[in-house]
Amino acid sequence: MSRPPLHLAVEIDGEGAHPAAWRRADHAPDRLLTPRRVAGVAAVAENAGFTLLTLDDGVLPPGAPPDPVGRIGAVERAAFIAASTSTIGITPVVPVTYAEPFHVSSQLASLDHVSAGRGGWVVTEEDHPGAARAWGRPPVTDSRARAAETRDAVEVVRALWDSWEDDAVIRSVATSRYLDRDRLHYVDFTGESYAVRGPAIVPRPPQGQLVVLGRPHLVPASQLDVALVAGRDVRAVTAAAAAAGTPRVFAEVEVALDTPAASRAERVADLERHAPWTDRGRLRHVGSAERLVALLHDLRGAVDGVRLHPLVLDEDLSVLSRLVLPALAERRLVARPLPGTSLRSALGLARPANRFAAAAAQEDAR
Hints:
By secondary structure, the chain is α/β, with parallel strands linked by helices. It contains 11 helices and 13 strands.
């Protein structure tokens, strides 16, 4: 029995996975945060055939001088990218430790509307004390307390996405009615640190629920559509994927490839003179494009997809788009999103029923 093709994601925040990646960028440092830069990278990823891209984020600066110390918010970048792309999924990172779930829900639902159903959400938490000061909230230092906030926030966001039924907007000119109030629902959530009464202020997303991605040790598997799993070798990744318990599993893989200008060893050594490549416990491929294709072939079947973290975006994304994805496509090892499909459809995930409408239907059937 043939194994299904892989879905490929790529992280495009900043200049790359290495903290000093900006030193090898092919543009001036002041171009990093420009709209043309953001749109250009997204276009390369979409044309290469990636299923989705992710945009890292956080309330604190991404690095310390002389490395980049600023970024534009991931949701704002995602909305901008949505207007200039047509097939690739767009999934910003949005931490929820101190953020208001009501606002997170509205932002992400709006992204799904702007992108015509290509939105996703990478759930993370803030564990640095400085994040609490930035939000003006007491620090959540206990890991269990942060996990509880994350769990509650995801539950609230998902409930708010369902607080409008699909046909709540009626736009009846004859009766001057825009909404059917009977199809709006209150969430009525009370947690340890906040309460939400709903309903949302944005209609239900086109996908019903955006695709939610996260690490299974931070977010309960029942709340995730896609688990992001790590491991320093294929065996560790395979074990983590088997234990994830989510509909889809993506492996985290950092890559440093040979380029026409320099070998992978030369590139890594050049950057290591300025800062160490942070070990995040991920599978790391430092080698040729051909060997990366072989690695992805080995991962197929153990995982549903792979999120790639290029060492230097300007250098590695070019090799990925010219050599790696075409080779995978030729061997039918990778899935390419089709025009007009949602991110859920691209990943083979069903559009979920509205929880409130389903409950009402069950009640009427009794």
